[in-house]
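Exercise 7b. Backbone tokens:
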């Protein structure tokens, strides 16, 4: 069974750091593009970052650019989201999603519906 599991969330003070992990089971991430999304209470889901299968192409939302870094270790079947200089407004449930079998090599999905598999989410809470 194909599955994505997020981990690494928690409670941190503003200015602190967390590293989220998204680990796949039941399939290889070698060919998959991975996106990180977040959703805060009462707000729409926001795309935070994404990375192509090779890691050569990445995207960051303006709200996290310069503070978050996405990376991947295909040998560990895991994608990471390093979050530094966290702000209270980063508080949300963070989800990873996989475009598991992209039709185009090294593709970066444009729309959320292009992701075929989603994790259950991990809570990130940043206190002031």
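Sequence design result:
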């Amino acid at each position: 069974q194909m599955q994505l599991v997020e981990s690494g969330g928690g409670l941190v003070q503003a200015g602190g750091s967390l590293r989220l992990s998204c680990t796949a089971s039941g399939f290889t991430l070698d060919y998959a593009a991975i996106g990180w999304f977040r959703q805060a209470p009462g707000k729409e889901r926001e795309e935070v970052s994404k990375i192509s299968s090779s890691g050569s192409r990445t995207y960051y939302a303006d709200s996290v650019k310069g503070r978050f870094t996405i990376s991947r270790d295909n040998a560990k079947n895991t994608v990471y989201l390093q979050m530094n200089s966290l702000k209270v407004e980063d508080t949300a449930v963070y989800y990873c999603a996989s475009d598991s079998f992209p039709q185009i090599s090294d593709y970066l999905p444009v729309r959320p519906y292009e992701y075929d598999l989603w994790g259950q989410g991990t809570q990130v809470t940043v206190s002031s």
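Instructor comment: The radius of gyration is 14 Å. DSSP finds no helices and eleven strands in the chain.
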